[in-house]
């Protein structure tokens, strides 16, 4: 008998419960053992989330721990504490833990992975990155020695869903955020999604797998979608660009670097057409050129599916590990242009800035709220600035583009 302890019974925990029950027979066939969900831990009984399940449910950690000699724990509560203490407790006892908790993995994964190794067990976190896409175990199981030079992607389902609905269906920010929460996509505190923290945790986890070490927090920049205004999106769209929250990590001369930022993607970029709750991940490396992964980035079934498959993967694969080596290919700058948005009142200051810094202004677009300028990439912009991915010359242009006269510079 495989005795399962389930910590958390919300969107993801509830999904794991259902997935385990629905695929009991197949799991038994693979693992040659019957699954039994022995206990569920929740926080607030008044929510009655687990009231119709045929399993022991408790709000007491002690009662949960004493209930059974668990063979595996699924953690789906989120946050650092008490999730860290709970996870460490089971790993120290040699019991594997499967987690969907990207914040915990990004912030304490190094300690927890060591604990797992020291106690001859494993810490699985497939579901912590990109919901239903099996990216973590593809890296650990199928790309074990493939050098990777860059990983980039759309890693937050909530904001991609929101941006898609706002742009394509002209719906309001508040309305689509509420919907993303109702659909079970958003974090308990959706600030994590909106301000880019969720994608920031995920890209740090991917970076650890792609480049071999847990990256330092300070080498990963983060900017969420909160400052993007409707007119920025409108200008981008008129020029044929798609706005996406892009997470990216790459090797540089100064070590591994990364960032999360809204960006403007030319239509030729593979991630430009990733819509709704779908996530997309691109891996670039010497032997593979570019590998693309697409799939649901959030939601009950997809995430629960990842957690259960993570358990099965680790049960069947001994020593799943990636051995990294620096890639041979040169790391080209991923973005050589930026979009700068300037309110009318700031126009003279902007002209002064490009003149002083010697920044090339490639194109401008006038809007009644301000101007959007496509400029050469720089780190000195005092205005709202976003990277552009892809070939700007190939973008679909509208005839109405205004090109300002910069000859006077
Ligand atoms: N939703 C999604 O699409 C995805 C979520 N994740 C991650 O999965 C985790 C869970 O998310 P989700 O299911 O959406 O969250 P929910 O808020 O839906 O559920 C959280 C569950 O955890 C329980 N819980 C919270 N704190 C405690 C505690 N201190 N002790 C015991 N139980 C506790 C809650 O109890 P109670 O029922 O009493 O409130 C609830 O059952 C998070 O780490 C999230 O980032 C990862 C991928 C996708
Ligand atoms: N809030 C997250 C859930 C999955 O990780 C997201 O929207 O991607």
From TrEMBL:
Give the keywords, sorted.
Amino-acid biosynthesis, Methionine biosynthesis, NADP, Oxidoreductase, Threonine biosynthesis
UniProt EC number: 1.1.1.3
Pathway(s) annotated for this protein in UniProt = Amino-acid biosynthesis; L-threonine biosynthesis; L-threonine from L-aspartate: step 3/5; Amino-acid biosynthesis; L-methionine biosynthesis via de novo pathway; L-homoserine from L-aspartate: step 3/3
What InterPro entries does UniProt report for this protein, alphabetically? Asp/hSer_DH_NAD-bd, HDH_cat, HDH_CS, NAD(P)-bd_dom_sf
Q: Which organism is it from?
A: Halalkalibacter kiskunsagensis
Query: Where does the Aspartate/homoserine dehydrogenase NAD-binding domain lie?
Result: 8-114
Any GO molecular function: homoserine dehydrogenase activity
According to the entry, every stretch annotated as the Homoserine dehydrogenase catalytic domain falls at 134-312
* Family per similarity comment: Belongs to the homoserine dehydrogenase family.
Name the record gives this protein: Homoserine dehydrogenase
Catalyses which reaction(s): L-homoserine + NADP(+) = L-aspartate 4-semialdehyde + NADPH + H(+)
Give the domain of life: Bacteria
Tell whether Oxidoreductase is among the UniProt keywords. Answer: yes
